[in-house]
Amino acid sequence: MKIFIDTANLDEIRKVSSWGIIDGVTTNPSLIAREGKDVKTCLRDITKIIDGPISAEVMSLDAEGMIKEGIELSKVHSNVNIKLPMCVEALKATKKLTLMGIKVNVTLIFSAQQALLAAKAGASFVSPFVGRLDDIGEHGTNLISNITQIFANYSFDTEIIAASVRNPIHVLEAALAGCDIATVPYKILQQMVSHPKTDEGIKKFMSDYNNLKKHNTDA
Ligand code: E4P
Q1: What is the pLDDT of residues 177-200, one digit of tens each?
Q2: With contact defined as beta carbons under 8 Å apart, do 97 and 133 qualify?
């Protein structure tokens, strides 16, 4: 499974990039706004750190505007994908941008039917939001399983990005469902690395070895 980082923060991107496990980046208007920079500057900076797909969302809600913005954003770098919020206008824009060779990530996916339509329009990625489904009392990662099965049934090339990831269990369940990608916030990536038994084990190995060294020096 590919792992993207869900952030527009350059420090976080730089840090995880050094781990050697990051395949791409997703941003959204809220994440960009948090950095206080315009979207193009953010994207340009990110492309200097990560060599992989980077999603940037348009603000237009009509197909013509989405296409125009999408073309502009895609000029920043060939790795930039255009994120379109799911709606009829986004389907129209997905079809056109895809025909122009610009990859589209249809975002704010909350049902398998939405994902099916986005895939049919030619989307390269769909982003089901698992955490926001949990927020309204559903089991968000069930949606990932459904989309995975539908895309496999009909051999769609569209990749599924598990988005709105709020904890390591979301990543686990997405991986078990055969999801192509999980886009994960920095804090959750840190949680995925850690296990209390690992920390305990490292401490014990260090102290046993240091005791032996001390014993040999004293002898
Ligand atoms: C994904 O592409 C979105 O940027 C993101 O995962 C949304 O997450 P949130 O529901 O925690 O805001």
Answers
A1: 999 999 999 999 999 999 999 999
A2: no
